[in-house]
Amino acid sequence: MWYRSASFILDKQQEENDAEGKPESRLLSTASPSSSMADTLQNPNPQISAYYQTRAAHHGVVTTDWLAQAQAAVGRDPDDGVSEISIISTDSGKQLSVIDEFNNWRKQPDLAEAVAAIRALAWVIRSSEATTMMELEIELKKASDSLKSWDTTSISLTAGCDLFMRYVTRTSALEYEDFNSAKSRLLERAEKFGEISYKARKIIAMLSQDFIFDGCTILVHGFSRVVLEVLKTASQSRKLFRVLCTEGRPDRTGLRLSNELAKLDVPVKLLIDSAVAYSMDEVDMIFVGADGVVESGGIINMMGTYQIALVAKSMNKPVYVAAESYKFARLYPLDQKDMVPALRPIDFGVPIPSKVEVETSARDYTPPQYLTLLFTDLGVLTPSVVSDELIQLYL
Amino acid sequence: MGGNARCIAMLQAFKEVIKDYSTPPEKTLARDLTAKVNSYVSFLIQCRPLSISMGNAIRFLKAHIAKLPLTMRESEAKASLCSDIDRFIDEKIVLADKVIVRHAVTKIRDGDVLLTYGSSSVVEMILLHALEHEKKFRVVVVDSRPNLEGQTLVRRLMEKGLSCTYTHINAVSYIMHEVTKVFLGAASVLSNGTVYSRVGTACVAMVAHAFRVPVLICCEAYKFHERVQLDSICSNELGDPDAISKVPGRMDVSDSDYRANKENLQFLNLIYDATPSDYVSMIITDYGMIPTTSVPVIVREYGREHLLI
C-alpha cells in the first residue's frame, strides 16, 4: 500500500511553509476573503456546508496570477515562526495552532483540504513536547478531532485524518524503548504520507494517460482539480481530444472548468445539465472527481454525478473516477439519504415563494455498479478494491 | 436451533470432553485427543450434518490441539485448551455479536419498516438494541413452514413492546412495498459473496432486490468459508420429509393418500439455500460493514494471520 510508494524528497516549498506562524495568518486574512471565514473555529453559516463555502471562496478568482501572489506572500522569515510556536504551550493553545497551521496550508487554492490537514497533523508530531508515546498519541487524537469538527460535512477531511492516524500509528516502531527514535519514526511516516498525498494528483494524471486516446470525447462533471490535472497532462503530451463540460449549477463549475481548459487550448463545449443524455452518444468516456470514496466502492460527489453515471451505464459508456487514496472513507451509504447532509443554497435568479421547498443538497452517492474504474495513487482500481485496501489498513 | 447456538453447545460439550480426558499410557495427548475428537465429530455428523460454523470451530479446536507443545503437562494442556475454547466463544461469537449490533443500529432510522425472515439470534439482538436506543420503527417478520421459527421471534419482540407484523412467505411480495430495509441472518457466507442461510432467505432477498429495498446480512466473521457454491442443491442438508407432508390442523391434506403413491412422489425438505451476492447490499460483520466482494479478503487476511484459527 502506501509503504510501496516511493518516498519523495520534501519540496523547498514545504520547508518554507513549515515555519508559518500566527502573525502571518492575520496579515493574509486582511488580504484574502477566504481566510476571514477560516480564522474562526466554527462555521459561521451552518446552513451552508463549510466544505462548499471553502471551495467557492477558493475558486471565486481562479487565475494563476493570484496563486503566484499567494505563494510569494506565504514565504517568510523562519525564525519568527518558531519562536511564536514555542510560546504556545497550553493544550488549548496547541489545538488553536493546529487549526491555524491547517488554515495556513489551506490558503493555497491548489492544495486539497485533506492534504493541508495531513501536513498540519505532521506538524503536531514535530512540535509536540510529549515525553511518552501515549501522550503523543493522545495529542494527535485531539488535534485530529479538532480538525474534523472544524467541518463535519467534508468527507475527505475526515477520511484523510482517520487514514493518517491509522497509517502513522500502524508501525512496530511504537514498541521501541527509546521514545525519541519512535517519535522520529512516526514523524518520518507522517511526512511520507503527506508527501504521497501531495503528489497523488501527479501520479493519477500519469496513470490515466493510457485511457485517453487521440480523437476521444470526454464528458466532465464538476470542478475537480485532479481531473483538471489529468486533462492538463494529456494536452501537454499533445493528445487530441475534446471535452464536454456540464454547466454544474449552482456552483457554476462548468464555467470555471471551461475557462481553465480554454487556456490550455483544449476544445471545450458547455452543456446544460439536462443535455447530458442528449450528448451521451458522442461521448467516449466520463471523468469525474470524488468528494469521498466509500467502502462499497461507490463515490460521493457533486450533485448530478449519479444521474450522469446512470445515463452512461444505460448507454454503455465507461465512467472513470479520479480520486486520491486519502479520500477512502469508512462510510457505507445504503441510499441517497444515508449520508451526512451537505446543504448549499441555490440562487434561481428570481424570488421563490416561501411555500415552495427547494432541494439544497450539494452532493449525491453513486453506487459502485455504475463506475468502471477508479484512478488513484495506489493504481488503477476496480471499485471492489476500495474495501480491500480499507480492511488491510484497519485490520 | 440456530448456527451460533449449535456451535456454542458443541464447544461446551468438547470442553467437558477435554476436562474428563486423561491420556492413556504410551500415547501423546495431541494425537490421541485429536483422534477422540474426530470420533466424536463423526458421531455428531451421524445425528445431524454439521453446520459451517461448527465446522470452522472444529478446525480451530484441532489446530490448537496440534499446536500444544509436547513437553506440556496434561493438566496445563487441558486448562489451556479450555481457556482457548472460552476465548473463541467470547471473541468470535459473543463480542462479535455486540460489534455487529453496534454497526447495524447506525443504519436504522426513525420511521423505518424493517423486515426479517425466520429467527436469527443476531437480528433479534439488533432489533432489541435499536428499541433500547429509542428508535421509532416497526418490524415485519416473515415466516415459513414447516419450522415456523418466526413465531418465537415475534413472541420475544412483542414482550419487549415492539410493534410487529407477522406474515407467511407467500405474502412477501405483497408486503415488500412498504418495507424500507431487510435484515437477514446467515449460516455462512461463501467466498463469492453467496449467502448460505435458512431456506426461504433467497426468496426474500430476491423480492427485496426487485423492490430496490436494501438487504443487510448480519454474520459473524468466523462463519465465513472459502468454499464457492453456485446453487442451493450441490451441498445442502435434508430435513425430515414428514414435516412437509403433514400439515397440523389440516386433516384433509395430511391423510395417507400421498403416501400410497410413493414411487412417483418425493418430499424434499431442504434446510439451507444459497442467496446470490447480487441481491445483497452489504454484510455486517464484527470487522465492519463490507460489500460482498470483500468476503475473500477477510478469509485471506484472517487465514494468514491465524485469527480465524
Quick structural overview:
Chain A is of the alpha/beta class. Chain A is 49% helix and 10% strand.
What does this structure look like?
The complex is a heterodimer of chains A (395) and B (309). With 395 residues, chain A is of the alpha/beta class. Chain A has helices at 12-18, 22-31, 33-38, 50-60, 64-74, 78-87, 91-106, 113-126, 133-150, 155-169, 179-208, 225-236, 253-263, 276-279, 305-314, 385-394, and strands spanning 216-221, 241-246, 268-271, 285-288, 292-293, 299-302, 319-322, 363-366, 373-376, 379-381. Helix content of chain A is 49%, strand content 10%. Chain A has a seven-stranded mixed sheet with strand order 3-2-1-4-7-9-10, sandwiched between helices. In chain A, α7 packs antiparallel against α8 (113-126) and α8 (113-126) packs parallel to α10. Chain A is globular and about 65 Å long. Chain B is built from twelve helices and ten strands. Chain B has helices at residues 3-20, 29-47, 52-66, 74-105, 121-132, 150-159, 172-175, 201-210, 241-245, 251-254, 257-260, 295-304, and strands at 112-117, 137-143, 164-168, 181-185, 188-189, 195-198, 215-218, 272-275, 282-285, 288-290. The radius of gyration of chain B is 21 Å and the shape is globular. The two termini of chain B are 24 Å apart. The chains are: A alpha/beta (395), B alpha/beta (309). At the A-B interface, α16 of A face β10 and α12 of B.
Helix proportion of chain B? 40-55%
- Percent strand of chain B equals 5-15%
Beta-strand segment tally of chain A: 10
Query: How much is the average pLDDT of chain A?
Result: 77
Number of domains of chain A: 2
Shape of chain A: globular
| Spatial ordering of strands, largest sheet of chain B | 3-2-1-4-7-9-10
What is the N-to-C succession of helices and strands of chain B? HHHHEHEHEHEEEHEHHHEEEH
Chains forming the largest contact: A-B, 16 and 17 residues
The low-confidence parts of chain B are none
Distance between the termini of chain A: 13 Å
By secondary-structure content and strand pairing, the structural class of chain B works out as alpha/beta
Specify the overall morphology of chain B.
Answer: globular
Distance between the termini of chain B: 24 Å
For the sheet with most strands of chain A, the description reads: 7 strands, mixed
- Can you count the helices of chain B? 12
Rounded radius of gyration of chain A (Å) = 21 Å
Number of strands of chain B: 10
Multimeric state of these chains?
heterodimer
